[in-house]
């Protein structure tokens, strides 16, 4: 849901696996910043070929402050996978997408998965996304540090867990005071952060829609992208053409900076690992044991061992320890995308039992050990600072003491064991610069010009299904589509049923009937093909009444599989 360097790293891995060679010169291919530095910021969308065909990029000018639109401006990095039907009567315009976060890079999303998203949504639409203001290749960028070297030195190790040490909460709070002080110093110079809010990004989206020559928004938002979509629907209810809000956040809780109810189903998601590992058997799940309960106990025993005896790891790009924090982070990450990560997690846990931590370590290995690159080219996007900049600006002011945070964390842990990872999202706002908070923060209601389609999974680790139903109540005519799967947002699992409802909604405006529950295809632990690649499931599927998939249906299933490997919703760790 929330962005860190891990998202950039996973996209980089996806690029090498699923995309052809870049069409730019070799220097530009290795430095995406060079591509964006060459583009002129314009008040219209001036598309230029970029990355690999048929991708196109543009820098789009918007007011930094919509209350004073003639003053400073921001440059939004926009990217599209264009419709092959543009210029014909079958063309249906752009579908804007947000990958989550806040702070997730829409540019990375389309570079890694634009072709697959186009296949899923159909040739009638452009697939368009962007780096929201303050994020990635959009400028000015959110940054608390004057140089990347200083950021890396302060952030290292980049992953912390408040239960890893006895003073975990106090240390996390103290570090937040430093980043808050740095952000305050920076904001006194450029007065940027107050403008990095969700309402302004919603206004940016409306301008993009109008720059496409359209009147109303077509949009698919994941995770935090549902907060952005709900904000748009509340501020501009008459400008909604199609809104799919997938992996739904409780926007009221988000804007209150509470982060208190996201984990209601997180332990249920982990239970699906134990259940599916047992169902897969020892041949498919290397961490298998005699029952799901026995697998759970084995993981607890392993965690206690690693707490006392961390395992050293050296890979071809980095090195470090699999300790308590690293192990918990790898498990927490796997909850977002079980079909991709549970088989890898099982292999890694089995290896760790034998003293080999390589697989577990690599689940959070994002990039080579940091090396300072001199020069004036724009580096790869740093989206870690943007997450706090947007969420802390959006939310209610937080000034909790360490003692108050002790109570907050205890309450989180009563909801889920994963509260130890989630607490950072409130703690990092405890010293945020004082702001007037004049932007929209509710109420989340609106009689939209077309009803909204909300989607929730039955075992989503950070956006429980109940949130979709809560948010839908504010928008007449809305329908909640349930996907019977673990993982974060619908793309975490293969459901032909869900994709077909999304396609029908965008093409025809057709909503599913109330109460529809979409099943998924195949087990999490499945056999591998001759090349060693995991096969998601059999061609016989229970959501198709046990019949064989038709050719185009199998194409959708295959596309969903590629999307899971080329893109993931950002996480906070």
Describe this entry's structure for a reader.
The chain has 573 residues and is α/β, with parallel strands linked by helices. The protein folds into 2 domains: 5-62 and 71-79 and 89-141 and 194-257 and 440-566, Alpha/Beta hydrolase fold, catalytic domain (Rossmann fold), CATH 3.40.50; 266-363, no CATH class. Helix content is 42%, strand content 12%. The protein has helices spanning 5-18, 26-30, 32-37, 106-121, 148-155, 168-190, 198-211, 224-235, 251-255, 266-284, 292-308, 324-334, 338-353, 358-363, 384-394, 402-415, 419-422, 424-427, 465-472, 496-508, 551-566; strands spanning 41-42, 48-49, 56-63, 73-81, 94-98, 126-130, 217-222, 240-246, 311-314, 319-322, 453-459, 479-486, 517-518. The strands form 2 sheets. Strands 1, 2, 3, 4, 5, 6, 7, 8, 11, 12 and 13 form an 11-stranded mixed β-sheet that branches. It is globular, with a radius of gyration of 22 Å. The N and C termini lie close together (10 Å).
For the structure shown, list the relevant keywords.
single chain, 2 domains, alpha/beta, eleven-stranded mixed beta sheet, globular, 13 strands, two-stranded antiparallel ribbon, about 575 residues, disordered N terminus, Rossmann fold, 21 helices, about 40% helix
Task: Tell me the CATH architecture of the largest domain.
Answer: 3-Layer(aba) Sandwich
Helix content: 40-55%
Which structural class best describes the helix and strand composition?
A: alpha/beta
Query: What is the class of the largest domain in the CATH system?
Result: Alpha Beta
CATH evolutionary superfamily of the largest domain = Alpha/Beta hydrolase fold, catalytic domain
What fraction of the residues are assigned to beta strands by DSSP?
5-15%
Using DSSP, what is the number of strands? Answer: 13
CATH fold group of the largest domain: Rossmann fold
Average pLDDT, all residues: 89
What count of domains describes the coordinates?
Answer: 2
The whole-angstrom Rg is 22 Å
N-to-C CA distance: 10 Å
What are the low-pLDDT stretches, counting only 5+ consecutive residues below 50?
A: 2-30, 529-534, 536-546
Largest β-sheet summary = 11 strands, mixed
Distinct helical segment count: 21
The best one-word shape is globular
């Amino acid at each position: 849901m929330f962005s860190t360097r891990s998202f950039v790293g996973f996209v980089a891995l996806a690029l090498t696996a699923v995309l052809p060679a870049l069409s730019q010169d070799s220097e530009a291919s290795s430095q995406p910043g060079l591509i964006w530095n060459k583009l002129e910021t314009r008040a219209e969308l001036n598309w230029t070929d970029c990355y690999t065909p048929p991708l196109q990029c543009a820098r789009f000018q918007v007011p930094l402050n919509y209350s004073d639109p003639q003053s400073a401006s921001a440059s939004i990095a926009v990217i599209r996978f264009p419709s092959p039907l543009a210029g014909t009567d079958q063309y249906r315009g752009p579908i804007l997408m947000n990958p989550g976060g806040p702070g997730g890079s829409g540019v990375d999303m389309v570079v890694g998965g634009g072709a697959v998203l186009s296949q899923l949504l159909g040739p009638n639409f452009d697939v368009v996304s962007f780096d929201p203001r303050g994020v990635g290749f959009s400028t000015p960028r959110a940054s608390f540090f004057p140089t990347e070297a200083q950021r890396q030195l302060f952030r290292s190790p980049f992953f912390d867990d408040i239960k890893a040490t006895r003073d975990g909460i106090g240390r996390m709070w103290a570090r937040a005071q430093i980043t808050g002080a740095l952000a305050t110093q920076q904001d006194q110079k450029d007065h940027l952060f107050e403008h990095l809010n969700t309402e302004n990004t919603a206004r940016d989206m409306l301008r993009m829609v109008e720059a496409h020559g359209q009147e109303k928004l077509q949009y698919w938002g994941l995770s935090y992208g549902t907060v952005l979509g709900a904000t748009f629907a509340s501020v501009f209810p008459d400008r909604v053409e199609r809104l799919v809000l997938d992996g739904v956040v409780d926007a009221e809780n988000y804007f209150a900076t509470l982060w208190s109810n996201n984990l209601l189903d997180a332990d249920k998601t982990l239970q699906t690992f134990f259940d599916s590992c047992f169902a897969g058997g020892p041949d498919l799940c290397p961490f298998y044991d005699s029952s799901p309960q026995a697998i759970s106990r084995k993981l607890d025993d392993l965690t206690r061992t690693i707490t006392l005896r961390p395992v050293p790891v050296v890979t071809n790009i980095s090195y470090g320890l699999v300790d308590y924090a690293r192990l918990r982070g790898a498990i927490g990450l796997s909850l977002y995308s079980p079909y991709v990560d549970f088989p890898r997690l099982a292999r890694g846990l089995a290896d760790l039992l034998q003293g080999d931590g390589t697989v577990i370590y690599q689940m959070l290995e994002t990039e080579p050990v940091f090396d300072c690159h001199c020069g004036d080219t724009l580096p790869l996007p740093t989206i870690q600072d943007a997450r706090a900049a947007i969420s802390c600006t959006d939310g209610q002011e937080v000034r909790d003491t360490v003692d108050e945070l002790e109570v907050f964390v205890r309450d989180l842990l009563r909801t889920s064991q994963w509260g130890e990872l989630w607490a950072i999202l409130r703690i990092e706002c405890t010293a945020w610069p004082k702001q007037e908070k004049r932007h929209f923060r509710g109420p989340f209601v609106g009689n939209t010009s077309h009803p909204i389609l909300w989607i929730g999974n039955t075992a989503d680790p950070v956006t429980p299904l109940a949130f979709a139903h809560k948010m839908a109540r504010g928008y007449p005519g809305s329908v909640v589509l349930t996907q019977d799967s673990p993982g974060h947002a619908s793309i975490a699992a293969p459901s032909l049923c869900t994709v077909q409802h999304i396609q029908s909604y965008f093409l025809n405006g057709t909503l599913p009937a109330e109460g529809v529950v979409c099943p998924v295809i195949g087990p999490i632990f499945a056999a591998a093909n001759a090349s060693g690649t995991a096969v998601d499931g059999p061609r016989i599927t229970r959501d198709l009444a046990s019949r064989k998939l038709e050719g185009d249906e199998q194409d959708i299933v295959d596309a969903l599989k590629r999307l899971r490997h080329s893109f993931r919703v950002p996480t906070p760790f």
